[in-house]
Design brief:
Strand order of the largest sheet: 1-2-3-5-4
CATH superfamily: HIT-like
Distance between the termini: 61 Å
Mean pLDDT: 81
Structural class: alpha+beta
CATH architecture: 2-Layer Sandwich
Largest sheet: 5 strands, antiparallel
Radius of gyration: 17 Å
Order of helices and strands: HHEEEHHHEE
Shape: globular
Number of domains: 1
Low-confidence stretches: 1-30
């Protein structure tokens, strides 16, 4: 294990096979952006929970719910239209493996470390909320999946990333509409309208 991997130590032994199986098989150094957060973090042994030859998984530093993960191409690619067929197939196959990796991770240990190392009040707020979440450490009942394909869609880092957001029964009064709530008044299509 690499030196200083306290967050990776939060993984149970049966999960460490994800880390060892394909750990850093190669690097897209020709297709990286030195200023890109995701291009840099993919080499951080403390951050990556799962990876394969094309993608890696990290937890979102501003989690919507405990276990909010980001599945990211290793190659610097900004838009979904730029993803190769191999990357897209690998996304499909990696989503379930990523969910398993998240579920096997000691989220309390990770969010505690995130909270202690947060460099902003907003980062502390999100991680405190994750630590106080009544379902922390429980298996989710469902997931929301998606990506923000462009700045107008809400993307804040110009490197494509797939959100895996765990959901729990009762985490909101009426979850109908799910991702449709990116435009709040359009979320619940069952609401009567004049």
């Amino acid at each position: 294990m690499a030196k200083g991997c306290q967050l990776r130590d939060a993984l149970p032994a049966k999960h460490k096979r994800y880390k060892g199986l394909l750990w850093k098989p190669f690097c897209y150094t020709d297709h990286m952006n030195e200023q890109c957060f995701f291009c840099k973090i993919q080499h951080d042994d403390n951050a990556v929970l799962y990876e394969n030859s094309l993608l890696f998984l990290v937890l979102d530093g501003f989690p919507v719910s405990p276990g909010h993960g980001l599945l990211v191409p290793k190659r610097h690619v900004a838009n979904l239209s730029d993803v190769t067929a191999d990357e897209w197939r690998t996304y499909y196959l990696s989503i379930q493996e990523s969910i398993k990796a998240i579920e096997l991770t000691d989220l309390k240990a990770i969010y505690t470390a995130f909270f202690e190392k947060a460099t902003s009040d907003i980062g502390k707020w999100f991680n405190r909320r994750a630590l106080e979440h009544p379902h922390l450490g429980m298996k989710p009942d469902a997931h929301n999946h998606g990506l923000n394909d462009g700045t107008a869609a809400g993307r804040t880092v110009d490197h494509l990333h797939w959100h895996i957001i765990p959901r729990y029964a009762g985490d909101m009064a009426d979850p109908r509409g799910g991702i449709r709530y990116v435009i709040p008044e359009m979320g619940n299509y069952k609401t009567p309208r004049a």
